[in-house]
Amino acid sequence: MTEPTLYDQLGEDFFRRLVHGFYEQVRTDDLIGPMYPDDDWDGAEDRLRWFLVQYWGGPHTFQDRRGRPMLRKRHFPFAIGMAEAERWLELMSRSLDQFDESELSPAQRGQLWNHMQRVAYMMINTQ
């Protein structure tokens, strides 16, 4: 028997709330907000949710609709430095803070946070 994935443990609604909470902040953020097209907030939210769901063991909606993730390639048109990576992490951390320990255990949060940090720093493409 296989171990339940983080997606199995947390469910679709967790990822929906996490990503929505993140984008609620991004919309008004002075540093990374301008990187997002004003006419595609819902699309951006969907794509991040699909990616996270797929990465953590849920349906492969991202790959079915967008192909392989290729995160660095997809983000290369945007100038992402340390400040942008840190801001992305700050906003994501605040979104994670909406969940108490009954919804997200410290171990689960640690798994998510480790992944978020690796991805954010991997996106850096400028000094």
From TrEMBL:
SUPFAM superfamilies: Globin-like (SSF46458). Signal peptide: none annotated. Pfam families: Bac_globin. Keywords: Heme, Iron, Metal-binding, Transport. InterPro entries: GlbO/GLB3-like, Globin-like_sf, Globin/Proto, Hemoglobin_trunc. The keyword Transport applies. CDD domains: TrHb2_Mt-trHbO-like_O (cd14771). GO terms for molecular function: heme binding; metal ion binding; oxygen binding; oxygen carrier activity. It comes from the Bacteria. Belongs to the truncated hemoglobin family. Group II subfamily. This is Hemoglobin. It comes from Corynebacterium timonense. The lineage of its organism: Bacteria, Bacillati, Actinomycetota, Actinomycetes, Mycobacteriales.
